[in-house]
Amino acid sequence: MNVDQALETRRSIKHFDPSVTIDDDMLRQLIRPVLYTPTSFNLQHWRFVLVRDQARKYELCKAAYNQTQVRDASLVALIVGKLDAHVDAARVWKGAPDRVQTSMQRAIDSLYAGDAGLQRDEAVRSGAMASMALMLRATELGFSTCPLIGFDDAEVRRVLGIPADYVTALLICVGRATAHPHARIGRFALDEVARLEHFDGLPLADQP
Ligand SMILES: Cc1cc2nc3c(=O)[nH]c(=O)nc-3n(C[C@H](O)[C@H](O)[C@H](O)COP(=O)(O)O)c2cc1C
């Protein structure tokens, strides 16, 4: 399966076979490539909380307003972003030449330290990019997925023990679909959403 096929066939699936399990080896195959996802200054804000325990999935299902795909998925992954990821600058730039380490540290500190809004934007942005990568990888491995933000944030944080210095980006359900979704509806056309050179520029025509 290539990227184009994965993008086109991925759908948000609401019905999973609860008897399907995902073992640690499959988890590694799923998550490892996701760690290549880019992040600003290589800060890698994301953390992945991987839930397979049935009782915990039940609790998450309740926290997600009883959306049953959370209960029935083989894996429920919560992607969170570290708000103060800039404190890891020295670690992630350690292998670089000294002058690069110094300039990166300076740039990262001046950009993020003291700017809670930007820290949050970046943590969510990185988490969202990783979430999409995870869904594409799951698709390639033959699974279906459903991304979710329909949940009580405080309750999900309580169930999974998420510390206050991490923001939740998305819950992603991964499993084997038992029912296929209705045909795609309501998607905007290419020439409505893509403009050339300027926000008010010419639309990118759907056909040559
Ligand atoms: C940020 C985000 C939050 C979403 N939250 C939910 C949700 O709480 N429950 C759900 O069933 N689907 C959720 N979805 C899935 C969307 O409803 C779905 O992506 C959209 O309707 C398009 O359908 P498709 O993914 O099958 O192409 C969410 C998707 C995104 C990206």
Tell me what you see in this structure.
The chain has 208 residues and is of the alpha+beta class. It has a single domain (3-180), classed as NADH Oxidase (3-Layer(aba) Sandwich), CATH 3.40.109. The protein has nine helices and four strands; from the N terminus they run ααβααβαααβαβα. The chain has helices at residues 3-9, 24-31, 54-63, 68-72, 89-92, 98-112, 116-140, 153-160, 190-193; strands at residues 46-51, 75-82, 144-148, 166-175. It has a four-stranded antiparallel β-sheet with strand order 1-2-4-3, sandwiched between helices. Helix 1 crosses helix 7 and helix 3 runs antiparallel to helix 8 (153-160). The model has no long low-confidence stretch (mean pLDDT 96). Bound molecules: flavin mononucleotide. Flavin mononucleotide binds at residues 11-12, 14, 67, 146-150, 170, 181, 184.
Cα-atom Rg, whole angstroms? 19 Å
User: Given the helix and strand composition, which structural class is it?
Assistant: alpha+beta
Low-pLDDT regions: none
The fourth-level CATH homologous superfamily is: NADH Oxidase
Helix content: 40-55%
Hey, roughly how much beta strand do the residues contain?
5-15%
Mean pLDDT equals: 96
Query: How many helices in DSSP terms?
Result: 9
Ions and ligands: flavin mononucleotide
Strand order, largest beta sheet: 1-2-4-3
Sheet having the most strands: 4 strands, antiparallel
CATH topology: NADH Oxidase
At the first level of CATH, what is the class?
Alpha Beta
Order of helices and strands: HHEHHEHHHEHEH
How many domains? The number is 1
Distance between the termini: 27 Å
- The shape is globular
